[in-house]
């Protein structure tokens, strides 16, 4: 089960959210949490911080942005020591995303960083959601990836590519890539060897929709 914090702001969505988490946990589901901070929707920054933290220790997987780390801890998101202050005993995987620079990962056994993929950014809306979707799509196939660092790094490379591609188009939904698009992005040559007319990297998604009748 994957969720954010916006549904915690008011009733009845908060109670519904909490009940859904309880049912999922009892049913043996893993809980994935992306706070997705939206301060204007909360009554105050203090309320946002309290609300986000109120369910923090129930998540198996936590994804936060570097900006959210600053908001929640007041510390440096590039500091592993600072970030580990947010890691709780139940947590199996915590991620700190750093935009185009990639992401940091923390588990109960190891920690590290996976670099990002450079693209020409048009709109960052939905990049975090795409990152989560890319990671969770791989964990849904084999949750054991979390305990295998090389495989986890590959899954995070995939997730980074999902987020990167999403920023190359306007709008959160139209820009979401499919698996084939992500695979092409990961296999692309270096930026110096590529061009925007090459459908195997940036712009491939647009190319794919324009040629959908040929591909089918």
TrEMBL record:
Domain Carbohydrate kinase PfkB: 8-178
Sample GO molecular function, one term: ATP binding
Domain of life: Eukaryota
Keyword match Nucleotide-binding: yes
Residues making up the signal peptide according to the UniProt record: none
Keywords linked to the UniProt accession: ATP-binding, Kinase, Nucleotide-binding, Transferase
GO BP, one annotated term: fructose metabolic process
Family, as annotated: Belongs to the carbohydrate kinase PfkB family.
Protein name stated in the entry: Carbohydrate kinase PfkB domain-containing protein
Organism: Ceratodon purpureus
